[in-house]
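About this split. The held-out portion is used to measure sequence recovery: a designer receives only the structure tokens and must propose an amino acid at every position. Recovery is the fraction of positions where the proposal matches the reference. Here is one held-out target exactly as it appears in the evaluation file.
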């Protein structure tokens, strides 16, 4: 069952997303929520330079898919999403607040994606943010994206398992993913069983840090994305 506190944050954070469930008394720490929902620039000049170059390389126009998020998005090879026309604007180290800052770039309005796939939340999770705050950040990203691309389909890759036994921060991870499923206007993709090789470690899909993915892992993600984006 979804934790009551997280339900409250989804209701509070979504605002214009129009969830009807009344919020119970318990809510997020205000500053935790502000931290996850206030746009923040890249964390260092190298990240800022990399993102500026990648954004400049994304020509204005139509795309089948716009990929936004953290290093899991940045490292996603285009080949696993073939034959889609993809603009990959993932940036390593991004948390929800950083992606919100990037969504405010005027160049984003020149991109016309049919679908937008978000891969975000892992960095907030591993740095200890409250699940309710992370959900608020994701809800704010979705609301902003609906304003920028009102006709695009929005899809969220649920935060995948991590750690040598796949159990790192797992209760909090599951709480976040369950809450995001309640946000109107976004479809979620769960890859837990497939990406973990059926919860069998070691798993060829994962890199040695047990967080990022090798090429086989991205093939799993690519298939899941295709299935979610183009099959009923």
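Reference sequence for scoring:
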């Amino acid at each position: 069952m979804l934790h009551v506190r997280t339900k409250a944050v989804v209701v509070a954070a979504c605002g214009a997303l129009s969830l009807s469930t009344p919020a119970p008394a318990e809510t997020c720490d205000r500053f935790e929520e502000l931290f996850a929902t206030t746009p923040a620039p890249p964390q260092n000049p190298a990240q800022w330079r990399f993102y500026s170059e990648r954004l400049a390389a994304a020509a204005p126009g139509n795309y089948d898919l716009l990929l936004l998020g953290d290093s899991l998005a940045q490292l996603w090879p285009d080949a696993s999403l073939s034959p889609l026309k993809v603009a990959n604007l993932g940036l390593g180290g991004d948390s929800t607040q950083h992606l919100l800052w990037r969504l405010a770039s005027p160049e984003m309005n020149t991109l016309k994606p049919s679908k937008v796939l978000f891969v975000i939340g892992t960095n907030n999770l591993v740095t200890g943010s409250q699940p309710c705050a992370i959900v608020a950040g994701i809800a704010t990203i979705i609301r902003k994206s609906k304003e920028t691309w009102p006709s695009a389909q929005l899809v969220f890759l649920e935060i995948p398992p991590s750690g040598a036994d796949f159990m790192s921060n797992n209760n909090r991870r599951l709480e976040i993913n369950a809450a995001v499923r309640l946000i109107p206007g976004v479809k979620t993709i769960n890859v837990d069983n497939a990406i973990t090789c059926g919860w069998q470690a070691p798993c060829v899909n994962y890199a040695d840090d047990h967080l990022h993915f090798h090429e086989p892992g991205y093939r799993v993600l690519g298939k899941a994305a295709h299935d979610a984006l183009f099959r009923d």
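Annotator remark: The first strand starts at residue 61 and ends at 69.
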